[in-house]
Structure formats: structure tokens, C-alpha cells
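B., you asked whether I could sanity-check this one before it goes into the benchmark set. Here's the sequence:
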Amino acid sequence: MRRSRKAKIMATLGPASDDREIIASLFRAGADLFRLNFSHGEAADHRRRVEIIRSVEEEEGRPIGILLDLQGPKFRLGTFGGGGPVEVQPGEPFRLDLDERPGDATRVTFPHPELFPVLLPGSSLLVDDGRLRLTVTAHGADFAETEVAVGGELSDRKGVNLPGVFLNLSAMTDKDRRDAALGLELGVDWIALSFVQRPEDAGELRRLVGSRCRVMAKLEKPAALAALDSIVNAFDAVMVARGDLGVEMPPETIPTAQRRIVRACRGTGKPVVVATQMLESMVGSPVPTRAEASDVATAVYEGADVVMLSAETAAGQHPVESVRMMNRIIEQIEGDEYYRAGIEGERSNPEPTVADAICYSLESTARVLSTPAVAAYTASGFSAERAARERPVVPILALTPHLETARRLALVWGVHPVRVRDVADEHEMVEVACEVAVREGAAKPGDRLVIAAGVPFGTSGTTNMIRVVEIPPEPGGEEKAP
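And here's what the prediction gave me:
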């Protein structure tokens, strides 16, 4: 099954998508990879979902990627007496402290002693996704006095955001470490680290996972934008996590932040995911709003590798239709006559490396010769990612002998990953590439095919050759001169 579009779809699994029939339907509707949100669910739930995904993968004969999304540090209020909720009024004082007694309309437990020292008078605390706002008036080692700036109803365990405050904390919690270890045991392909603020945040996760999977930075704090280029370089991919980012930044700044992040990733050839509330109304409605369709379109026009569905597929009433709708929007945009102009206008110059020179030539040769596809042999996935950086008009057949590499490439724009046998020489390389191109419906006998590879074969980081061949009448026949 080869998609007719270039941008990929990630679907989050949850209670609404918890059985094999639904997960298989999500894949057939267009989901290229699945997200496991470790902020919710038990280990047994995630284990079962991974087993189902791998079963669907085997049945469908196409690599499917799995992303584990770590919860990260979460800051929450304590509980209120009488079961809550309480009403807090604008202008009234409200105290946060370490006292474990149930709260009331004047105070509540805030069980995060590490945060009190970083607060300053005038700092804002956003509660319940920004629905309430508190302004710090004074603080000590174990308390913060605040004034209610925006009041409303407060109930147990509501989340707290600290916009504009750099938190000198590890991006990984003990729970994250346990969850990452479980993910490695289950064989996930990507692990996303939440609340990344600096490139150094990648260090602990990279040491933990080694080469067993790829790591992604979720950008949810404004501090990350100040170190954007360094963060992009430190991670294998980036997610524009617009949920928390939208709480901590003014809404009108989110579109420009998204565009900036996407451009930074495209310039370095790192995959980028645009996430959160893309078709939010489809949690309850069978159709999205026009504004949501335009939001997805914007990400596709910008050249994002992946657009992601969250609650729509995890907890919504129409999970499969949400994926179908996302698929239709992407196909519509990529068929627009102005789409290519925007994609090519955002293209960055290749870096002065052999791999970039080859992949740049791959795209330009395919364009000049009007070939229906290009093929890139890759052991680690790097060559396919560099080819995708050029955003060719035609699909990229990523040929790899490693199933884990094929699964990771499910995240990358325009890449159709295929697991193939090891090749020993150039003749076999051409033979396998032609066979795959015909079998996958990317080309037909008589078409030209542009192939990038590295010699010696099977060695990562050796992309150093490009071939143009004509697909013979029978796959596996003699190569013809181009």
C-alpha cells in the first residue's frame, strides 16, 4: 500500500481506538504511524496496542512507525475540601504552599518545592490551560502569595503553566525513565521528549536509548524558541506541540512560531510534526470546521513532514473519519497548482557534503528526466531523509534491509519505506530497485529510475553514487542504457 500523498499522518491511540479492527481501519484510512501518549493509560494498554500495530503491519506488508510520547514534568495543584470546586474572584489573594491540607477559595497545595525559588513578583501562573491566571506578589522557599488576575472555578489537580520562566530542571522525570525503558522493550521507533527548553535536554534520553530508536523534541516552552537552531541540531526530529505552547504564548504568536520551527527543520533536513487541535471539532462532529481544514492546509503548504491527530482519534467519536478527512485535505493541497511553488520557495541550499550533493542531484535529475520516482538505498535512514529535504515532486522509495529503519522512515515526508534484501553489487542494486518500483506501483517497465546509493553497500553514511537506469520489460532483466 503506497500513499498518493507526501505529507504523513500520525494518529494517537486511546480509548476510542483500542482494538485491532479500529487500529487496522485507521491505518487503511491513511495513518502512517501511531502515537502512544504516556500521559494516559497503563503499561498493559500500551503493550497491547504495540502488539496490535505489529500484527497489522505484518498483515498489510508495510512498515508502520510507533512514537512514544513521554509525559514530561507536569505541575498540578493539590485537592480542595468538600470535593470542590471552589470559585476564586479577580483581585482576591490566593496562596500556593506545601501544606497538604485540602484547599479552599484562599489557598491550595502546590506540591512542587523546586518551583517556588524561580518565581518572581509579577510572574504569571496559568491554571487549567490558561483559563485562570494568578500573579505572584511574594514568595519564599515553600510558598507563593498571588493575586487572582483572571478568576473562575478551580477543581482538583488542575495543571499549572509558568510562561516566561526558565525551569532549570531535567526534562525527564522518574516516570519518563520508566516509560522510555518500557518503550525500548516494546521496540518503539521514536521517543518524544516533552517540555524541551535547551539542546542539552537531549543528552539523558540519547544516553538511555542509544541507537535503539530516534529521539524527538516537543517544543512546548517559549524558552525553546530562543535556542531553536541548537535544539533542532541536537534531536532527530521536532514536534510543534501547540497545546502547551499556545497556553504559554499569546495565541496570535503561534502561527509565526510554527512557521519558524518548520523552516528551521526543513533547512536542516530534520522531520517536523505539527500537532494539537488540528481537527478538534471532529472529537464530536463527523466534519471539521473550515478553519480547521485551513489549519491543516497551512501545515501542508509549509512543508511539514507530519500532521498529527490527538483527541480526534484517541477519544473522539469519529476516529477513522478524522484520518480520512486529514488524508483528503492533504491530497487536495498537494494537488494545488500553487503548492509546489511554496515548497520550492522554502528550499534551503544543500550542505557541502557528498551525501547532500548526491541527494540534490537525485531530485534535479528526476525533475529534468521526468522520472516517476527516485530510489535511495539506506542503512540508517539518513540518505532518505536528505533526499526528502529536497522535497522532490516524485515519491522517494527508501530501500533498506533493516525493518527498524523502514519503520522510522514512516515519519518522513515523501518517503515510501520498503524493506529489501541486502545487495552485494551494483547490478543487484539496480535489479532490486527496479523490482520494487514496479511492484509498489511507483513506476512501470520502460520508465527511467534515478537511484542513489553508497559504496561499499550496507555501510551507513556512504551515499556517494547516483545511477539512472531504464526499468527492463521484466523485473530482474538486464539493465538498459539510459
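One thing to flag: The first helix runs from residue 20 to 29. Otherwise nothing jumped out at me.
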